[in-house]
Amino acid sequence: MVQENERQRMEINRQYWEEAVGIHARSAFYNLPGFLAGNLSLDELERSEVGEVAGKTLLHLQCHFGLDTLSWARLGATVTGVDYAGQAIAMAESIAAQCGLRGRFLHSNLYDLPGVLSETFDIVFTSYGVLCWLPDLVEWARIAASYVKPGGFFYLAEFHPFAYVFDDEADHLVYRYPYFARGAQHWDFETTYADKETPLQNREDYEWPYRLGEVVTALITAGLRLEFLHEHPFTVYDQLPFLEKQADNRWVFPGGAEPIPLMFSLKASKPPA
Description:
Layout: H1 4-25, H2 32-36, H3 44-50, E1 57-61, H4 67-74, E2 78-83, H5 86-99, E3 104-107, E4 121-127, H6 137-146, E5 148-159, E6 185-188, E7 204-207, H7 212-221, E8 225-232, E9 244-245, E10 251-252, E11 263-269
Parallel strand pairs: 1-2, 1-4, 2-3, 4-5
Antiparallel strand pairs: 5-11, 6-7, 8-11, 9-10
Helix pairs in contact: 1-5, 6-7
Protein backbone atom coordinates (compact mmCIF):
# COMPACT_ATOMS: atom_id res chain seq x y z
CA MET A 1 0.00 0.00 0.00
CA VAL A 2 1.43 3.37 -1.05
CA GLN A 3 1.21 5.86 1.80
CA GLU A 4 -0.27 9.34 1.33
CA ASN A 5 3.09 11.10 1.76
CA GLU A 6 4.51 8.90 -1.00
CA ARG A 7 1.58 9.73 -3.28
CA GLN A 8 2.29 13.41 -2.69
CA ARG A 9 5.87 12.84 -3.82
CA MET A 10 4.63 10.95 -6.86
CA GLU A 11 2.44 13.95 -7.70
CA ILE A 12 5.52 16.22 -7.63
CA ASN A 13 7.19 13.73 -9.96
CA ARG A 14 4.18 13.71 -12.26
CA GLN A 15 4.50 17.47 -12.71
CA TYR A 16 8.14 16.95 -13.71
CA TRP A 17 7.11 14.34 -16.28
CA GLU A 18 4.28 16.48 -17.66
CA GLU A 19 6.85 19.13 -18.51
CA ALA A 20 9.43 16.62 -19.73
CA VAL A 21 7.13 15.22 -22.44
CA GLY A 22 7.42 18.23 -24.74
CA ILE A 23 11.15 18.57 -24.12
CA HIS A 24 11.72 14.89 -24.85
CA ALA A 25 9.54 14.86 -27.96
CA ARG A 26 11.74 17.63 -29.42
CA SER A 27 15.04 16.04 -28.35
CA ALA A 28 17.59 14.25 -30.50
CA PHE A 29 17.71 11.61 -27.77
CA TYR A 30 14.23 10.30 -28.63
CA ASN A 31 14.48 11.07 -32.36
CA LEU A 32 10.77 11.44 -32.95
CA PRO A 33 11.27 12.38 -36.65
CA GLY A 34 13.05 9.06 -37.15
CA PHE A 35 10.19 7.20 -35.51
CA LEU A 36 7.62 9.02 -37.64
CA ALA A 37 9.66 7.97 -40.68
CA GLY A 38 9.32 4.31 -39.73
CA ASN A 39 12.16 3.54 -37.32
CA LEU A 40 11.82 1.53 -34.12
CA SER A 41 12.80 3.02 -30.75
CA LEU A 42 13.57 -0.36 -29.17
CA ASP A 43 17.11 -1.54 -28.47
CA GLU A 44 18.13 -4.89 -29.91
CA LEU A 45 18.33 -6.17 -26.32
CA GLU A 46 14.62 -6.08 -25.63
CA ARG A 47 13.69 -7.10 -29.17
CA SER A 48 15.79 -10.25 -28.92
CA GLU A 49 14.84 -11.12 -25.34
CA VAL A 50 11.11 -10.48 -25.68
CA GLY A 51 11.03 -12.30 -29.01
CA GLU A 52 8.23 -12.49 -31.54
CA VAL A 53 5.23 -10.34 -30.63
CA ALA A 54 3.08 -10.54 -33.76
CA GLY A 55 -0.45 -11.53 -32.85
CA LYS A 56 0.16 -11.11 -29.11
CA THR A 57 -1.29 -8.64 -26.62
CA LEU A 58 1.22 -6.41 -24.81
CA LEU A 59 0.78 -4.07 -21.85
CA HIS A 60 3.46 -1.40 -21.47
CA LEU A 61 3.68 0.04 -17.95
CA GLN A 62 5.12 3.55 -17.51
CA CYS A 63 5.14 4.05 -21.27
CA HIS A 64 6.09 7.78 -21.34
CA PHE A 65 4.91 9.16 -24.71
CA GLY A 66 4.63 5.78 -26.32
CA LEU A 67 7.50 5.29 -28.77
CA ASP A 68 8.41 1.86 -27.43
CA THR A 69 4.73 0.93 -27.12
CA LEU A 70 4.13 1.85 -30.75
CA SER A 71 7.35 0.13 -31.81
CA TRP A 72 5.85 -3.11 -30.50
CA ALA A 73 2.71 -2.26 -32.48
CA ARG A 74 4.87 -1.89 -35.59
CA LEU A 75 6.16 -5.39 -34.91
CA GLY A 76 2.62 -6.77 -34.82
CA ALA A 77 1.54 -6.65 -31.17
CA THR A 78 -1.83 -5.37 -29.97
CA VAL A 79 -0.62 -2.77 -27.50
CA THR A 80 -1.86 -0.90 -24.44
CA GLY A 81 0.33 1.78 -22.85
CA VAL A 82 -0.11 3.28 -19.38
CA ASP A 83 1.38 6.44 -17.93
CA TYR A 84 0.44 8.90 -15.19
CA ALA A 85 1.38 12.00 -17.20
CA GLY A 86 -1.58 13.26 -19.19
CA GLN A 87 0.71 15.06 -21.65
CA ALA A 88 2.47 11.74 -22.34
CA ILE A 89 -0.80 9.99 -23.13
CA ALA A 90 -1.95 12.84 -25.41
CA MET A 91 1.40 12.78 -27.24
CA ALA A 92 1.29 8.98 -27.63
CA GLU A 93 -2.19 9.15 -29.13
CA SER A 94 -1.10 11.90 -31.52
CA ILE A 95 1.95 9.92 -32.67
CA ALA A 96 -0.16 6.80 -33.19
CA ALA A 97 -2.58 8.77 -35.36
CA GLN A 98 0.26 10.32 -37.40
CA CYS A 99 1.80 6.91 -38.02
CA GLY A 100 -1.44 5.05 -38.63
CA LEU A 101 -0.65 2.67 -35.79
CA ARG A 102 -3.23 1.16 -33.47
CA GLY A 103 -2.60 1.52 -29.77
CA ARG A 104 -4.66 2.12 -26.67
CA PHE A 105 -3.25 4.54 -24.10
CA LEU A 106 -4.53 4.87 -20.53
CA HIS A 107 -3.91 7.80 -18.21
CA SER A 108 -3.36 6.27 -14.77
CA ASN A 109 -0.97 6.08 -11.87
CA LEU A 110 0.37 2.53 -11.94
CA TYR A 111 -0.85 1.90 -8.40
CA ASP A 112 -4.40 2.89 -9.43
CA LEU A 113 -4.42 0.78 -12.60
CA PRO A 114 -6.50 -2.12 -11.19
CA GLY A 115 -9.41 0.31 -10.95
CA VAL A 116 -9.01 1.22 -14.63
CA LEU A 117 -7.95 -1.97 -16.42
CA SER A 118 -9.09 -5.53 -15.73
CA GLU A 119 -7.94 -7.69 -18.66
CA THR A 120 -4.77 -9.77 -18.91
CA PHE A 121 -2.02 -9.83 -21.54
CA ASP A 122 0.42 -12.21 -23.19
CA ILE A 123 3.28 -9.84 -22.36
CA VAL A 124 3.67 -7.17 -19.70
CA PHE A 125 6.62 -4.95 -20.56
CA THR A 126 8.45 -2.08 -18.85
CA SER A 127 11.90 -0.60 -19.37
CA TYR A 128 14.63 1.93 -18.60
CA GLY A 129 14.36 4.25 -15.66
CA VAL A 130 11.05 2.98 -14.32
CA LEU A 131 11.80 1.44 -10.93
CA CYS A 132 13.24 4.55 -9.27
CA TRP A 133 9.82 6.26 -9.51
CA LEU A 134 8.06 3.53 -7.52
CA PRO A 135 7.82 3.77 -3.71
CA ASP A 136 6.48 0.21 -3.25
CA LEU A 137 8.07 -2.56 -5.34
CA VAL A 138 6.03 -5.32 -3.68
CA GLU A 139 2.77 -3.68 -4.78
CA TRP A 140 4.26 -2.88 -8.20
CA ALA A 141 5.15 -6.53 -8.73
CA ARG A 142 1.72 -7.70 -7.55
CA ILE A 143 -0.03 -5.37 -9.99
CA ALA A 144 2.29 -6.23 -12.89
CA ALA A 145 1.88 -9.97 -12.27
CA SER A 146 -1.91 -9.64 -12.12
CA TYR A 147 -1.93 -8.53 -15.77
CA VAL A 148 0.08 -11.50 -17.07
CA LYS A 149 -2.04 -14.21 -18.66
CA PRO A 150 -1.36 -17.80 -17.57
CA GLY A 151 1.38 -18.92 -19.93
CA GLY A 152 2.44 -15.30 -20.53
CA PHE A 153 5.39 -13.37 -19.15
CA PHE A 154 6.63 -10.13 -17.64
CA TYR A 155 9.75 -8.47 -19.08
CA LEU A 156 11.92 -5.73 -17.57
CA ALA A 157 15.04 -4.00 -18.91
CA GLU A 158 16.45 -1.55 -16.39
CA PHE A 159 19.54 0.28 -15.21
CA HIS A 160 21.55 -1.77 -12.76
CA PRO A 161 21.28 -0.43 -9.21
CA PHE A 162 24.96 -1.09 -8.58
CA ALA A 163 25.88 1.44 -11.29
CA TYR A 164 24.12 4.13 -9.26
CA VAL A 165 26.58 3.94 -6.37
CA PHE A 166 29.18 5.77 -8.47
CA ASP A 167 29.68 9.51 -8.88
CA ASP A 168 27.97 10.65 -12.09
CA GLU A 169 30.17 13.74 -12.27
CA ALA A 170 33.58 12.07 -11.94
CA ASP A 171 35.86 11.13 -14.84
CA HIS A 172 36.34 7.56 -13.55
CA LEU A 173 34.60 5.14 -11.18
CA VAL A 174 34.37 6.80 -7.78
CA TYR A 175 32.07 5.48 -5.05
CA ARG A 176 29.58 8.14 -3.89
CA TYR A 177 26.13 6.75 -2.99
CA PRO A 178 25.27 3.78 -0.70
CA TYR A 179 23.80 0.74 -2.42
CA PHE A 180 21.45 0.08 0.50
CA ALA A 181 19.98 3.59 0.71
CA ARG A 182 16.35 3.57 1.85
CA GLY A 183 13.40 5.87 1.38
CA ALA A 184 12.70 8.72 -1.01
CA GLN A 185 15.74 10.64 -2.26
CA HIS A 186 15.09 14.31 -3.04
CA TRP A 187 16.70 15.81 -6.14
CA ASP A 188 16.73 19.14 -7.96
CA PHE A 189 17.60 18.89 -11.66
CA GLU A 190 18.14 21.84 -13.97
CA THR A 191 17.50 19.77 -17.10
CA THR A 192 16.35 16.28 -18.08
CA TYR A 193 18.60 13.40 -19.14
CA ALA A 194 17.40 13.73 -22.75
CA ASP A 195 18.09 17.45 -23.25
CA LYS A 196 20.79 19.03 -21.15
CA GLU A 197 20.29 22.50 -22.64
CA THR A 198 16.59 23.23 -22.05
CA PRO A 199 15.96 24.40 -18.47
CA LEU A 200 13.16 22.84 -16.44
CA GLN A 201 10.50 24.77 -14.55
CA ASN A 202 9.53 21.69 -12.48
CA ARG A 203 13.01 20.80 -11.28
CA GLU A 204 12.13 18.91 -8.11
CA ASP A 205 11.67 15.16 -7.98
CA TYR A 206 11.79 12.19 -5.61
CA GLU A 207 13.32 8.84 -6.44
CA TRP A 208 13.32 5.56 -4.52
CA PRO A 209 16.47 3.42 -4.56
CA TYR A 210 15.99 -0.22 -5.52
CA ARG A 211 18.18 -3.27 -5.18
CA LEU A 212 18.41 -6.21 -7.56
CA GLY A 213 17.47 -8.76 -4.92
CA GLU A 214 14.29 -6.98 -3.89
CA VAL A 215 13.15 -6.61 -7.51
CA VAL A 216 13.53 -10.34 -8.18
CA THR A 217 12.04 -11.34 -4.83
CA ALA A 218 9.00 -9.09 -5.35
CA LEU A 219 8.25 -10.71 -8.71
CA ILE A 220 8.66 -14.24 -7.37
CA THR A 221 6.47 -13.44 -4.37
CA ALA A 222 3.83 -12.14 -6.80
CA GLY A 223 3.61 -15.62 -8.33
CA LEU A 224 5.90 -15.30 -11.33
CA ARG A 225 8.65 -17.78 -12.21
CA LEU A 226 12.03 -16.30 -13.11
CA GLU A 227 13.13 -17.48 -16.56
CA PHE A 228 16.34 -15.46 -16.75
CA LEU A 229 18.22 -12.59 -15.15
CA HIS A 230 20.91 -11.05 -17.33
CA GLU A 231 23.42 -8.35 -16.39
CA HIS A 232 24.93 -6.15 -19.10
CA PRO A 233 28.16 -4.09 -19.40
CA PHE A 234 26.49 -1.45 -21.59
CA THR A 235 23.72 1.10 -21.19
CA VAL A 236 21.46 3.19 -23.44
CA TYR A 237 22.47 6.72 -22.41
CA ASP A 238 25.49 8.58 -21.03
CA GLN A 239 24.87 7.32 -17.51
CA LEU A 240 28.46 8.13 -16.51
CA PRO A 241 30.35 11.02 -18.15
CA PHE A 242 33.31 8.94 -19.34
CA LEU A 243 31.31 6.27 -21.18
CA GLU A 244 31.75 6.07 -24.95
CA LYS A 245 28.90 5.90 -27.45
CA GLN A 246 28.95 3.11 -30.02
CA ALA A 247 27.40 3.05 -33.48
CA ASP A 248 24.47 1.01 -32.13
CA ASN A 249 23.64 3.84 -29.66
CA ARG A 250 24.87 1.84 -26.68
CA TRP A 251 27.25 3.39 -24.17
CA VAL A 252 30.22 1.37 -22.92
CA PHE A 253 33.39 1.74 -20.85
CA PRO A 254 36.48 2.95 -22.75
CA GLY A 255 38.78 0.40 -24.28
CA GLY A 256 36.34 -2.47 -24.07
CA ALA A 257 36.58 -2.65 -20.27
CA GLU A 258 33.67 -4.24 -18.41
CA PRO A 259 34.30 -3.40 -14.73
CA ILE A 260 30.68 -3.29 -13.52
CA PRO A 261 27.18 -4.06 -14.81
CA LEU A 262 25.34 -1.03 -16.17
CA MET A 263 21.97 -2.65 -16.93
CA PHE A 264 20.04 -5.81 -16.21
CA SER A 265 17.11 -7.53 -17.84
CA LEU A 266 14.78 -10.27 -16.69
CA LYS A 267 11.89 -12.37 -17.85
CA ALA A 268 9.41 -13.93 -15.43
CA SER A 269 6.53 -16.12 -16.55
CA LYS A 270 3.16 -17.10 -15.13
CA PRO A 271 2.58 -20.87 -15.18
CA PRO A 272 -0.19 -22.07 -17.52
CA ALA A 273 -3.59 -22.56 -15.91
